DNA sequence: GTGAACTAAGTTGTATACGATATTGCGCTC
DNA sequence: GAGCGCAATATCGTATACAACTTAGTTCAC
């Protein structure tokens, strides 16, 4: 399921690191929406007791990455179309202005880091690791909030990015072109020029493009797992 | 500490209801910033084991209302000046546009509810219950996000409102005039007229006024509890 | 008398045990 | 053979037990 399954690594896991590991697995689509996350199973996988597993699952449920159903267990969340719209609505409010702030405060070191992200994303795609590419693409957005020096907004954006990855897993229309890094390249240019207004506009359009590449018509919500589809 | 202390009520508490009860107590300033929240103490107060208490404290720590210090325990959070600025920065991005949406979608029933909130706030103030007044004042903002039909943004705003109450506890300048409901009255008028542009502008100014009524100079961060002041 | 070190008490961190609930499969009835 | 009901199994919910850490208090050395 995750690399934690290999019994060889002797890492000592905490609820936080387990939550992070699971979040990354979800973000990279190694754990697709609807996957059952059994407590015993996870505990054995990580070599910890259910106590810590439950803490990690709770943390993920607060970020809406995992849905906790009483007496039924934890499942990787399956955002509805309405929820998908809400997530991008929130991103539209937060990210453009944050990109503006980031452009103003941009440092050369941060620019290098952003460029490194794009390079790594390209490499991952060339290796066919679309999951890792998607993850890196998300980190790009989070890094922008970090540069803007807004940790509260960063936390919100981080959650929204992860949820976006679930939305992409469910509603992505054209599989071919991943998160087109064209937009990220253009953003970097704006950052390099410290052009806040341009960065804000580019981010706004980037998010609109992303949303446009999704199929958010209310046709078939994708039955997925028979019973889950009926919400029971 | 909270009404849960009275042993008479036979309510069965869950981690969620305990978290909600604690959050309200924090919001109403019955649990001031820096208060130690001992697990055994809380467990006895609510008549539950530490397991559920820990779950509730974790939930509150994800909302940044409680700070968890490893092997030290849980404390009501004490936002720094920088954090206070971040919270209001985030609110400035989220709430005005959300007020705009709310104005467009406003219903008569929601208008009545908003008015009821203001009335209840006045009553609380007249009774000298400033804590309850502050809580209701916050609920007013959350209700707006509900009307806007944005549950994701509502969750963010809800967190920011609660954190704002901590900020007010620490940095409020003029004790007399609580969250001046003048602004809320004006917002209701804009909502009644379904004037989105006006509501957005009023909300923006309301937040600026609120921030202006705080003392966010970096003078003395308020030592509070001697050792806590040194971050140890 | 000051300081360090050790000891003891208290609190949190984690695992485990037990009870409650949901689900599955079997067998019975019709 | 179809449908219902009951039992068995599996999983989650909560409490409790024990280990680890922090902290406070005391003693001893200097």
Textual characterization of the structure:
The structure is a homodimer of 232-residue chains. A 3-stranded antiparallel beta sheet of chain A has the order 1-3-2. The first copy, chain A, is 63% helix and 4% strand. Chain A has 9 helices and 3 strands. Chain A is mainly alpha-helical. The first copy, chain A, folds into 2 domains: 64 residues, Orthogonal Bundle (Arc Repressor Mutant, subunit A); 132 residues, Four Helix Bundle (Hemerythrin (Met), subunit A) (Up-down Bundle). In chain A, strand 2 and strand 3 form a beta hairpin. The interface between A and B is medium-sized, with 19 and 20 residues.
Q: Which helices and strands occur, and which strands form pairs?
A:
Two copies of one chain form a homodimer.
Chain A: H1 15-27, E1 36-37, H2 39-46, H3 50-62, E2 66-69, E3 73-76, H4 81-105, H5 108-126, H6 130-147, H7 151-171, H8 181-192, H9 196-212
Antiparallel strand pairs in A: 1-3, 2-3
The structure holds a DNA duplex (30 and 30 nucleotides).
What tags apply to this protein structure?
4% strand, disordered N terminus, Arc Repressor Mutant, subunit A, Four Helix Bundle (Hemerythrin (Met), subunit A), globular, homodimer, three-stranded antiparallel β-sheet
Summarize the structure.
Two copies of one chain form a homodimer. Helix content of chain A is 63%, strand content 4%. By secondary structure, chain A is mainly alpha-helical.
Could you give the distance between the termini of chain A?
25 Å
Main interface: chain pair and counts: A-B, 19 and 20 residues
Strands side by side in the biggest sheet of chain A: 1-3-2
Number of helices of chain A: 9
Q: Helicity of chain A, in percent? A: 55-70%
Keywords (chains A, B): DNA-binding, Transcription, Transcription regulation
Organism (chains A, B): Pseudooceanicola antarcticus
GO molecular function, one term (chains A, B): DNA binding
Protein name (chains A, B): Transcriptional regulator, GntR family
